[in-house]
Specification:
The chain contains three helices and nine strands, in the order βαββββββαββα. With 155 residues, it is an alpha+beta fold. Strands 1, 2, 3, 4, 5, 6, 7, 8 and 9 form a nine-stranded antiparallel sheet that branches. A hairpin with a 5-residue loop joins strand 6 and strand 7. It starts with 15 loop residues before the first strand and ends in a 5-residue tail after the last helix. The N terminus is likely disordered.
Length: 155
């Protein structure tokens, strides 16, 4: 096990279930599901996906994926980070979708710092870093579906 990552352990106060599919019962299943979603996304990872299991004071197992990049054929990309607890709750995430010229298209975030503004720690940036709006919890399959729709891969 890796020691707790600074900041992750303190985010337990506001977690949401992210159970993506009925067969996903634990973090090992979650990892298999996530790998399947990424493989069928239409994009390619710029490097091998690194997944860590870390400990936190609140949960003995947290699946942590530090920043990764999934690049699509037209150059658009998804940078993402994700931390999920053993009971399949999202501690935090960042799904940053940008064009080939590094311009933000949208970014879904879940992290502490905007609870007073939105009443939750989840929000969406659209078109510009400073433009934030309230957003519900999202999961990787929803994010990838949005991207595939925008790229014309899905109706």
């Amino acid at each position: 096990m890796v020691n707790a990552v600074p900041g992750v352990a303190s985010r337990r106060s506001c977690t949401y279930s992210v159970v993506p599919a009925g067969w996903v019962q634990n973090l090992d299943d979650y990892w298999k599901w996530l790998e399947s979603e990424l493989s069928s996304s239409g994009g390619s990872l710029n490097e091998d996906l690194v997944v860590q299991m870390i400990e936190s004071p609140f949960d003995p197992r947290v699946l942590l994926i530090e920043q990764q990049r999934l690049t699509f054929p037209d150059g658009q990309y998804l940078d993402f980070t994700l931390a999920v607890t053993g009971d399949l709750n999202a501690l935090d995430y960042n799904f940053h979708f940008a064009d080939a010229n590094d311009r933000l298209i949208w970014r879904y975030d879940k992290h502490i710092g905007h609870e007073a503004e939105f009443g939750t720690d989840t929000h969406l940036h659209v078109g510009h870093e400073d433009h934030r709006e309230a957003a519900g919890v999202v999961e990787m399959d929803q994010v990838l579906k949005l991207i595939r729709t925008e790229l014309g891969y899905e109706p």
